Design the sequence.
C-alpha cells in the first residue's frame, strides 16, 4: 500500500519536472523549486532503503519496479539541474525588483488597456504563426518577397544597422509582452533581464509554481502575445514606412519582424511551438489527430527546402 503512495508521489514529481523542463526550454534561466523536488526524492530514497533492509520477499517485484522508476526520475532531475546550471553560465544582467515592479504598476494602473493589449497581441500571435508557416512557402513558390528591394543587390550600411536595431527593438517588445501577460494574470515575476553565454537574449522569469498552476489559456497567451507584439509593431512600422517612403523605417520593421518570425515557427522550444501545442491540446481531443497536426510543421519545413532548391535553380 505504501509503495502505491510512493508511485503516486513519483508521478507527481515527473509532471513537475516536465513542467519545469518545458519552462526552462523557453530560454529562461530558471531558479525553480528544484529544492522541494530534491527533498522529496531524498525522502523516497530513504524509504526505499528501509523497505529493502526489511528483506520482504512479497514486495520484491513491486519494489524493483518502484526503485527503477525512482532512478529514472532522479536522472531526469539531475539532467534538468545541470541544464539550469549551464544556462546561467556567462553574463547575466537581471532586475529582481525594479522591472518586475514596473510591470505590476503598469498593469494595475492601466488594467483595461493591458487586458485589451493582451487579447489583441494574442490574436496577432496566432496569426503570426500562420504567416510564418505559409508566407515563405508562398513567396518561394512565386519567387518574390515583398517590401525587400535591394539596390544592385547590396543593402546600404545604414539600412543594415537599422535592421540590427530592429532586431533589438523586437527583443525588447517581445519580452515586454511576456511581462504584461504575467502581471495581468497575477503571476509573480521573479527576474527580468538579459543574458549572454550559452544563450543570448532577454528573459522574463516567472514564479514557476503560480505559472504552472495557471489556466492553460494563460500559458497560450504568454507565448502568443510576445510574437503577436512583434507582428503588431511590424504592421504599424510598415504602414509608416509606406506612407513616408522611408527605407529606414521599413528596415526597422523588418528587423523586428525577423525576430518575431524566428520565434514563431511552430516547433518547440520556440514560442510558436508552445502556442501551437497549446492550441492542439485545448481544441483537439483525438490523439491521432493531435499527432497529425504536430507533424505538420516538419512537413512544411521539408516543403520549404524543396521550394528553396527550386527557387535557387531558376
Sequence:
Amino acid at each position: 500500500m505504501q509503495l502505491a503512495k510512493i508511485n503516486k508521489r513519483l508521478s507527481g514529481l515527473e509532471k513537475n519536472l516536465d513542467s519545469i523542463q518545458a519552462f526552462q526550454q523557453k530560454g529562461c534561466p530558471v531558479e525553480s523549486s528544484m529544492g522541494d523536488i530534491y527533498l522529496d526524492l531524498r525522502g523516497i530514497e530513504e524509504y526505499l532503503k528501509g523497505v529493502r533492509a526489511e528483506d520482504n520477499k512479497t514486495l520484491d517485484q513491486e519494489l524493483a519496479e518502484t526503485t527503477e522508476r525512482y532512478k529514472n526520475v532522479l536522472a531526469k532531475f539531475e539532467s534538468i539541474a545541470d541544464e539550469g546550471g549551464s544556462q546561467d553560465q556567462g553574463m547575466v544582467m537581471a532586475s529582481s525588483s525594479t522591472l518586475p515592479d514596473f510591470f505590476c504598476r503598469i498593469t494595475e494602473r492601466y488594467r483595461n488597456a493591458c487586458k485589451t493589449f493582451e487579447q489583441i497581441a494574442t490574436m496577432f500571435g496566432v496569426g503570426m504563426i500562420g504567416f510564418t508557416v505559409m508566407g515563405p512557402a508562398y513567396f518561394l513558390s512565386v519567387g518574390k518577397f515583398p517590401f525587400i528591394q535591394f539596390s544592385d543587390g547590396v543593402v546600404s550600411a545604414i539600412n543594415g544597422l537599422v535592421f540590427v536595431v530592429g532586431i533589438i527593438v523586437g527583443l525588447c517588445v517581445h519580452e515586454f509582452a511576456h511581462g504584461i501577460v504575467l502581471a495581468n494574470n497575477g503571476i509573480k515575476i521573479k527576474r527580468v533581464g538579459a543574458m549572454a553565454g550559452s544563450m543570448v537574449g532577454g528573459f522574463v522569469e516567472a514564479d514557476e509554481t503560480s505559472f504552472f498552476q495557471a489556466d492553460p489559456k494563460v500559458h497560450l497567451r504568454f507565448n502568443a502575445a510576445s510574437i503577436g507584439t512583434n507582428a503588431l509593431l511590424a504592421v504599424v512600422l510598415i504602414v509608416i514606412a509606406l506612407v513616408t517612403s522611408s527605407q529606414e523605417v521599413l528596415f526597422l520593421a523588418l528587423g523586428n519582424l525577423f525576430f518575431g518570425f524566428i520565434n514563431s515557427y511552430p516547433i518547440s522550444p520556440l514560442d510558436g511551438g508552445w502556442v501551437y501545442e497549446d492550441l492542439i491540446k485545448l481544441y483537439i481531443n483525438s490523439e491521432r489527430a493531435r499527432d497529425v497536426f504536430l507533424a505538420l510543421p516538419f512537413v512544411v519545413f521539408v516543403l520549404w527546402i524543396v521550394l528553396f532548391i527550386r527557387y535557387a535553380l531558376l
Summary: Strands lie at 90-95, 189-197, 200-206.
